[in-house]
Amino acid sequence: MTARIIDGKHIASQVKQELEGEVRRLKEKFNLVPGLATILVGDDPASHVYVNSKIRTCEKLGIASFHKQLGSDVTEAELIEIIQRFNADSAVHGILVQLPLPGHIDESRILMTIDPGKDVDGFHPINVGKMVVGDTGFLPCTPAGIQQLLIRSKVSIEGAHVVIVGRSNIVGKPIANILVQKQSGANATVTICHSRTPDIAEHTRRADILIAAIGKPKFIQAEMVKKGAVVIDVGTNRVGSTKEGKSILAGDVDFDGVQDIAAAITPVPGGVGPMTIAMLMLNTVKAAKLSQGTV
User: Fold this and answer.
1) Is 80 exceeded by the pLDDT of residue 241?
2) What does the domain layout of the chain look like in residue ranges?
3) 259 included as an active-site residue
4) Which of 35, 78, 139, 225 satisfies CB 3.0 to 4.6 Å to 144 for a cystine?
5) Which CATH superfamily is domain 141-275 in?
6) Catalytic status, residue 98
7) Which of these is catalytic: 98, 147, 148, 259?
8) Gap between the terminal Cα atoms of the chain
9) Mean pLDDT, to the nearest integer, of 167-181?
10) Is residue 54 annotated as a catalytic residue, yes or no?
11) What is the pLDDT of residues 267-291, one digit of tens each?
12) Looking at 115, 119, 121, 208, which residue is catalytic?
């Protein structure tokens, strides 16, 4: 058996196509143009790639883009002032501060400064709290993208045993909270494994849906996966470079070994990654609608 490939690029393009139609409807019916502000501090090449991709996606979907590039020597007070200006700007519905930030800036304080109604990354404690209790808010983009991958691939989540390897605030904890909710597209039994779990393989072998988000290349080996499981690989680990200087990426799952055991699997790249930007756009459109009370 060779696993079915869950194509994140294809599913993300479906989401973006739906959003393009919704953005057009908001413009025509309400004269409302969703707007996303991005703030990039410093010259990290990977961060530049991520932010530029978000800006290009905004342009394709008809979402207004507001970008602020800052030097790595910007002070925390200056960054907070910029965020507060975006908070007060009615044309800006979503604000994204690209992480990581330089060491002299308190990331927690910066995220707390963003208006929760514009927190399209879903990192503000108010939105985290809403996620935990199953209330309406902004879901973190990567976990929300994982849920959509499963739903749109017609993977049965309700009643499934989901095992998550990794407990980060960005992926592991949020996706556990999302999939355990008493809601459509959830109702799973969830186990979280991490660096202090004595025998991770004992848990992963029981998973109907296995989500690997531990940040270690090829950590999940074939013997750790139950036959017929659905495997979602969140890892993006740079393990080398080509002669042309392009990064060679590896996921947290040994794809070659696991694809002969799993029923379905996401590749790296082209799996979870494309969904993150798609869900950011979805949150931005949602924020615009909420700001005007439109549906």
Assistant:
1) no
2) 30-116, 141-275
3) no
4) 139
5) NAD(P)-binding Rossmann-like Domain (3.40.50.720)
6) yes
7) 98
8) 44
9) 97
10) yes
11) 999 999 999 999 999 999 999 999 9
12) 121
